[in-house]
Each structure stands twice: as C-alpha cells, then as structure tokens.
TrEMBL record, chain A:
Keywords: ATP-binding, Nucleotide-binding, Transport. This is ABC transporter ATP-binding protein. Residues 1-228 form the ABC transporter domain. The keyword 4Fe-4S does not apply. One of its GO terms (molecular function) is ATP hydrolysis activity. InterPro entries: AAA+_ATPase, ABC_transporter-like_ATP-bd, ABC_transporter-like_CS, P-loop_NTPase. Belongs to the ABC transporter superfamily. It comes from the Bacteria. The lineage of its organism: Bacteria, Bacillati, Actinomycetota, Actinomycetes, Kitasatosporales.
UniProtKB/TrEMBL annotation, chain B:
Keywords: Membrane, Transmembrane, Transmembrane helix. This is ABC transporter permease. The chain crosses the membrane at residues 20-40, 52-74, 95-122, 128-151, 158-180, 206-226. GO terms for cellular component: plasma membrane. It comes from Streptomyces himalayensis subsp. himalayensis. One of its GO terms (molecular function) is ABC-type transporter activity. The keyword Transmembrane helix applies.
Length: 303, 239
C-alpha cells in the first residue's frame, strides 16, 4: 500500500503558474490524470517523480518527501513522455542497464521484457524501434524493480489500438495487484476505459475528482450551446423556450441564426427535432458551438 | 562511488556519437603535423617543444576535454534521457564521479597518447620533451574533464562556453594578459611538465606548488558542485 500525497502544491516557472494549489491523494489502483494539453499534468507528474520541487506545498510518498530523495526510486517506476532513450543500445541492453542501476541482474530485466512482450525485438537497436515499441521498452525499464508506484506521462501517445489495449491490460493488472498506477492523458475515452479513479486538471488547477461516472456526468450535464438556423427562427425560439431544457435563446440577427443554451443535454437533443417537425419548421443548421475539450474542461473548473 | 553501469552507458554514449569523430580527427592532425615538421625541419628540440606546447597542449587537449567532459553528461540532460539514471536509487555524486572518471580516461587516451607519439616523431623524446608534454596532457586531462563536466551539468551551451574558455581565455587572453595565465589549466599543467623536463624548453608562469594546489582544488570543487547540481536537476517536461 503506497500512497502519494500532494498537499497544497504549487509550481511556477518565473511568472507562469503551471500547477496552482493542488491537493490530492493517489492511492492503490489505476488513477487517470485528465486534462487538456498544457494543463500542468506533466509538471504535476514531474513533482511526483522527484524531478521538480514544488514551489510551495509538499509532495510526499508514504509521508516521505520525494524531492531530493533518490531512495524513493526503490518504490517508484517512471515512464517519461519524452522519446529520448539510449538509442545506441539494444532494447535488452537498455533494460539490463536499468536493472543494474537498481542493483538487480539480467533476470529482472528479462522478466520485465517478457511482461511487455518485447522479447522478440530485444536485440535490435532502440533507434530502429517504432514509437509503440519504445513505449514498451520504457515501460519495461520502469518495471524491472517491480515498483509499488508507477507514474506514466501520456503513455498511449503514438500507440496503435492493439498496443494501446495491451498496455491498458497491463496497467489494469498492476492496479488490481494493489500497485499505485497513475497515468496522464488528454483523452477522456482513454481515461474512462482504464482508470478506476479520475483527477481532472485544467489550467494548473484541480478541477474535479471521482470515478468516471461522476466525471462523465459532470461533462454531459454542463450547459451546451448550439447554433441553429431554420426556416423560421423566431417561431422555433418561441416553441423551444417553453421547455425547461433550454435556459436561454438569443436571436442573432446579423448571423441569421439562433444561439441556444441547453441545460438538459439529453432532453434538449430529443426536443429540438420534435418541436421543429410539429411546427413545420425546417432545420438548416444545428451545430454545437463549444464542444472543444478546453471548454468542456473549463466548465468543470467553474462547477 | 563508482558505478560500472553508469560508466558503460557514458563511454558508449561518448564514443557512439558523431562528435566522437573529433576525438579521432584532432590527434590524427597532430600526428600529421608532427610528421610534416620532422620531415621539413629535422629533429629540433625547440621546434618539438613549440609544436607540442602550441598545438597539442594549448589547443588539442582542451578541445578533447570539452568534447569528453561536456559529452559525458550534456547530451543526456539536453534530450532528457538522464531521467533513466536519475530515477534510480543511485547517489548523484556517484553518477558525477563515475562520469568524471570516464571523461578523464577518454581525454587522456585521446590527448596524452597522441602527444607522446607526436613527441617521439618530432625529436625522439630528446630532453624528455615528449614525456614532459605527455605528463602535462595527463594532468590537464583531469582538470579539463572536471571543469567541462560541471559545465555540461549546469548549462545547455556547455560546448560553446567550453570552447570559449579553452580557446579565447587560455590562448588569447593568456598570451595578452599575464594575470590570466595564472588561472589557466594549461599553465598549471606546464608547471608539472617543467618539473619533468628539467631544462628551459618547457616553462610555466605558475610555480609547481601553486599549480598543484589549483589543479587539485579546481578538480575537486568542480566535481563536488556538479554532484550538487545534479541532485536538484529539474526536468521541465515538454508542455
């Protein structure tokens, strides 16, 4: 049972705040760190991995500070996002070197290579590997000492669907074994499939926390904005506003369109075509106007 | 204090990179120059001393030192692969000390051996000149490797700074400003060479006791500080 505690941690780089007063506890099982690019996920993971000191607050592993404490790596395995490895080595040489640095021998390396199913290419130079193969060798290097904590920064980037599934299975298995597994991603579906617990980070702040059902609900329950053009905008607006699923409708005269704010996503999407048909109105355009990931996330921050 | 795995990774990285070509090219150039000088002027102790002092010790040794010293850690920090060393329960000073040993060894092999060979070609080690400059190269290798390893740890522009120090400070300022020569690895190592050669062909502006103290002091201080810097090395990530 190993737990990482982040207590009111902030990190800034000169006058840019990358992580802003985050408090969270990462325990056994698989935790997904979700947030758009640039949200501060890597900064947070670097603090958990001991490569960055928190500017204020603390980051500890079972009560011991992680920064400037190299003994912590007996318990932590790290899979960095960056591609750079020792490309001039073969996969096997690389993993063996990682095992030796932990005071282990080639058997540990061989076990880790088997775990990630990279034995077939272990004697090729890393420089010849595909992105997915690199990812798996990185994974093997982090697993040689069977750490109780595994930190992965965007591990699924550049993987094909099959490799993605394999890695998900592996991480799920490690979570089930009681290890603390934390991975970051900017893709909700990835996190949803794998993580039993989700932490959402937006613009350096801790936006939400919970299981995927809760996060999913927060995301679908947010107000949705639509841009609608029809054969009779005012009649449509009048009919829609009568229903509680819409919170506001603006008739945008210059655009020749309606800007609709819906509060009940499910109900509104069923309502709109029915109302149009009943009133003999033709819908010309229906487009969601704030579906970008950033806007979805920033809604969570406000919530 | 010494980790064989770190050593293996370091020397393979050093010799596997394109930069390593300079490690072979410069000594080859020295040997060619020595051969040409010998053919053109015959064996002459003064000329031998000029070539070894002017090219081997003043130019080749520091450049080899820059490449080996900064190359032992700089590229790893630049591309982020140093993570794999740092995410291990290995003491940071051990990593630095091991890399220093490798950098010293590489600098010695690629500077002292060619210096000795060039000396033999130039005047057959007359008046101990070949041996004296070889000893100077060996001594300078230690201090250069330590200095440039530190530079590689603290800045991404280590090669540039290293070359500026080696070529501008030691060569240019050293020849213009007398005081600058006191703070010059080259002069310190020449002090040791002067002792070995005995005659007045090899001279230094710095006395042997001071030179010894400065060589040891710079090496120890640079190594210690690099170890401290590595303990607090931060990786900003790609965001």
């Amino acid at each position: 049972m190993t737990t990482i505690d982040i207590d009111h941690a902030s990190r800034w780089f000169s006058n840019v705040v990358a992580v802003n007063d985050i408090t969270m506890t990462v325990g056994p099982g698989v935790t997904g760190l979700l947030g758009p690019n640039g949200a501060g996920k890597s900064t947070l993971i670097n603090m958990m991995g001991g490569f960055l000191a928190p500017s204020t607050g603390s980051v500890t592993l079972d009560g011991r500070p992680i920064w400037r404490n190299e003994q912590i790596y007996r318990k932590i395995g790290i899979v960095p996002e960056r591609e750079a490895m020792y490309d001039f080595l073969t996969g096997r040489e690389f993993v063996v070197a990682n095992a030796e640095l932990h005071g282990l021998d080639a058997r540990a390396a061989q076990r880790a290579l088997a775990t990630v199913e990279m034995e077939y290419a272990q004697d090729r130079k890393i420089s010849t590997y595909s992105k997915g193969m690199r990812q798996r060798v990185k994974m093997a290097s982090a697993l040689v000492h069977e750490p109780s904590v595994l930190l992965l920064d965007e591990p699924f980037n550049g993987m094909d669907p099959r490799q993605r599934m394999q890695l998900m299975d592996l991480l799920r298995r490690m979570g089930d074994e009681g290890r603390t597994v934390l991975f970051s991603s900017h893709i909700l579906e990835e996190v949803e499939q794998l993580a039993s617990h989700i932490e959402v980070i937006v613009a350096g702040r801790h936006a939400a926390s919970g299981d995927f059902r809760k996060i999913r609900r927060l995301m679908t329950d947010r107000p949705h904005r639509y841009l609608v053009r029809s054969s009779d905008d005012r009649a449509l607006a009048a009919a829609l506003i009568a229903d509680p699923s819409t919170a506001g409708i603006e008739v945008d005269v210059t655009e020749g369109a309606l800007r609709i704010q819906a509060v009940d996503f499910g109900r509104f999407t069923a309502l709109l075509p029915r109302v149009a048909r009943d009133n003999g109105i033709r819908l010309l355009t229906v487009s969601p106007s704030d579906e970008s990931l950033e806007s979805v996330f920033s809604y969570l921050v406000a919530a | 204090m010494y980790d064989p795995t770190v050593a293996r990774l370091t020397y393979r990285a050093l010799l596997g990179r394109r930069r390593a070509l300079i490690l072979f090219a410069l000594p080859a150039l020295l040997i060619v120059i020595a051969g040409a000088v010998r053919v053109l002027t015959g064996a002459d102790d003064q000329v031998a001393s000029d070539v070894l002092g002017g090219f081997a010790l003043a130019t080749m040794v520091p450049i080899i030192g820059v490449i080996a010293g900064t190359g032992a850690i700089g590229p790893e920090i630049d591309d982020g692969s140093v993570v794999y060393l740092l995410a291990k329960p290995v003491k940071r000073p051990t990593i630095i000390f091991t890399k220093l040993i490798v950098a010293i060894a590489v600098t010695m092999v690629f500077s002292a051996i060619p210096t000795f060979v060039a000396g033999l070609i130039l005047n057959g080690n007359g008046q101990q000149i070949a041996v004296a400059y070889t000893v100077a190269a060996l001594v300078a290798s230690i201090a250069y490797a330590a200095l440039f390893l530190l530079l590689g740890t603290v800045t991404r522009h280590a090669v540039v700074f290293g070359l500026v120090y080696a070529l501008v400070w030691e060569a240019l300022f050293g020849s213009l400003v007398a005081g600058a020569r006191t703070l010059s690895v080259q002069q310190w190592s020449l002090a040791v060479a002067q002792k070995v050669a005995g005659g007045d062909l090899v001279t230094s502006d710095v006395g042997l006791p001071l030179a010894t103290v400065l060589l040891a002091g710079v090496t120890v201080a640079a190594t210690w500080y690099a170890g401290q810097k590595l303990r607090t090395l931060t990786l900003a990530g790609e965001e």
